[in-house]
Amino acid sequence: MAASTSTLTIKDLHVEIEGKEILKGVNIEIKGGEIHAVMGPNGTGKSTLSSAVMGHPKYEVTQGSITFDGENVLEMEVDERARAGLFLAMQYPSEISGVTNAEFMRSAINSKREEGNEISLMKFIREMDKKMELLEMDPDMAQRYLNEGFSGGEKKRNEILQLMMLQPRIAILDEIDSGLDIDALKVVSKGINEMRSSDFGCLIITHYQRLLNYITPDYVHVMMQGRIVKSGGPELAQRLEAEGYDWIKNELGIEDETVGQEA
């Protein structure tokens, strides 16, 4: 079997926000072909993990390492991480006035290509039209300003459209299911499943089993108090849905507290 083309390795990661330690030694490895889900109560550091990987300046890594195919991610600027093949679908996508959806995505695609090898306009339009149809998006959204006036569901579909257009090697999806009705959830899940391949790895951060009814993860990790305290297969998420987090707390002797506010 051929070796995986992509590996994101997080070792003993400690992260602070304004002097308060949020992550207290996170270890996880995501390879191409794998889908991982991270679940946990509010305030345990799940969103902090995604922001730290992508280099948000608010989050200070005080210990540990993040490597992507052997390269030190912590030495990369945010745009370098994106060009290397890392992608973050944010919990609260930003609005950018004056830049259309299509302009933003074409620029993002070309920023990853060498000069002289930019995607042609016709190929870009064909690809975008095809993927918007799969995601059941109004074609007019291509010419609307990025996320401006979009509903919550439209923003989440648009994040998946960006994922499908940019074709990253490792993606982090931060609560991509929050605020979605069941129909939108199915469409978003369809887009993520369309990406599944040996060249694509994914970390899904979610509170709910319902998303994992449509996207079957290879691994499920439970995060509490800034650490991953338990890992398993899809059955772990099903048990959490049925019994909540108390059984893990009792099993591991974890007190009922959180590590701080998630960003």
Description:
By secondary structure, this protein is of the alpha/beta class. 35% of the residues lie in helices and 27% in strands. The chain is built from nine helices and twelve strands. It has helices at 46-54, 78-84, 101-111, 121-134, 152-166, 182-195, 209-212, 234-243, 246-252; strands at 7-17, 20-31, 35-39, 60-68, 71-72, 86-89, 96-100, 145-146, 170-174, 201-205, 219-224, 227-232. The strands form three sheets. Strands 6-9-10-3-11-12 form a six-stranded mixed β-sheet, with helices on both faces. Strand 1 (7-17) and strand 2 (20-31) form a beta hairpin. Helix 5 packs parallel to helix 6. The longest helix is centred in the middle third of the chain and has 15 residues, at 152-166.
Main traits of this protein?
alpha/beta; four-stranded antiparallel sheet
Query: How confident is the prediction overall: mean pLDDT?
Result: 90
Q: In percent, how much strand structure appears in the residues?
A: 25-35%
Q: Strand-and-helix sequence, N→C?
A: EEEHEEHEEHHEHEHEHEEHH
- Assembly level: single chain
Protein name: Fe-S cluster assembly ATP-binding protein
Keywords: ATP-binding, Nucleotide-binding
GO molecular function: ATP binding
Family: Belongs to the ABC transporter superfamily. Ycf16 family.
